[in-house]
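Name: HTH-type transcriptional regulator SgrR
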Amino acid sequence: MTEPATDAPPSGAPAYRRRSRSAGRILIVVGIVVVAAVIAVLALVLNQGDGDRSQPSGGGAPAAGPSELTIGLQLEPTNLDIRSTGGVALDQILIDNIYQGLVGLAPGSVSDFVPVLAEALPTVSDDGLTYTFTLREGVSFGSGNALGAQDVVDSLTATLTEALLGAPAAVSSPDERTVEIALEQPNSQLLWHLANRPGLVFETAYTGDLANTANGTGPYLLEDWKQGDSIAFVKNADYWGEAPALDRVIWRYFTDANAAVNAAAEGDVDVLAPVASSLVEQLEGNADFALEHADSTDVFTLAYNSAKAPLDDVRVRTALSKAVDGDAIIAAFYGDGKALGGPITDIEPAYEDLSSINAYDPEGAEALLEEAGVEDLELTLTLPNFYPADAANQIVSDFQAIGVTLTIDEVEFATWLSDVYSAPEDGSPRDFDLSYINHAEANDFVNYVTEGYYFGAVNAEAKALFESSVASTDPAEAVDLVRQAARVVAEDAPAKWLINYTPTNAIGVHVHGFPASNTNSRISLEGVTVD
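Structure predicted for HTH-type transcriptional regulator SgrR:
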């Protein structure tokens, strides 16, 4: 448990700058212990935008003296090697701030691409097979060594694999400022990959251990990592772009939601992202903070093991989906979210309102179970034990109303990964019944059409539509094909999309330009300032 900072920090812990508090500071009720929701697992979308990441966006004027920002988060990375370690905890703080790629995402967007280490978005051949980038001049890594075309070639060769793209790709550098990516077949998702983990550029010659060091081209450098407590960044004085307004950033981790809220109230964090839904009211009326809902692609997902009887019957999956009272789920999240009828959220280009599909209808659910010849059904729901139980308990009640007994099995996240997410090494089918998890990544529809993913069976029609989208060279057509595929998936009911979680962030009134979108998975500090 991470306790709130005191005036005399314990030995070995960093000293946190405590801002002055307003006279109207609220009192925190310490009896509530709720661990708020966290994230897990990977991403992909289309659309091209212009702009230049060397210019900051928004924000107020930076403080005259050294400026420091402390951000309270939930999920601490297990190590810092973003090349090989899964989970959004690394993406949340490292992408944009320390590591960069040829292109990135515009602040606040999950689909608008902007040049970063490239001078401009790529020139694309008419057949969609060749992407040509011109590198910026004057870019260096945190090590002090200059970025070279070979660093880009080596980094992208390692990630743009046939497994990722569906066909081989060749990355080359005709000269020191040019990088070419040659595809064997068009791929409408390529820019998305380049703007995310697969596109990050690393220094080939770097010999440090990236599990506990960091060496990127971004505006910040890793200063310190006190495991179990915090990670500190400092301004990169040699950054190639516009100098960041913040001199130092501390990412402070709280495993206990109540301790996090107490730390905010005591002035020990400037931002809390997010505030546990059940504790938001504890910060209401606090003049030091603005409470803001962040748009997000977070989707709390009730997944069915559609490779296991009787969940291999679409009628059973549909019945379970119809049994869930969506309004009650939103209430279980204390209003921190929106109804969602499919796997794509409303801030992604391929969104369509599918809430009418498998909407709440307990009578219809009972009829489908009867039609499928299923009675006295007993199922187990496996979920990581850091989630609040409110929504899961609501599902238990909803299922009970249609004669289905649901047992909750709360496990460590590592156990969820091994028992649900990962396929058995011997090739046997996964044995779980239902899973409850937050899929936080944008553009992750590919998971629903990927053989071997933990949902089980793949709908052939949806897979064909998605493959056509990837192969399309027309951006509008590519988006429309994903939209069609999402409708097919929604009707096939591999999961019930319980809620599009829109977390409440507590942002100090002295903080300006803090991101208002997808803060559970990617927090760019570009344009963030403090008074």
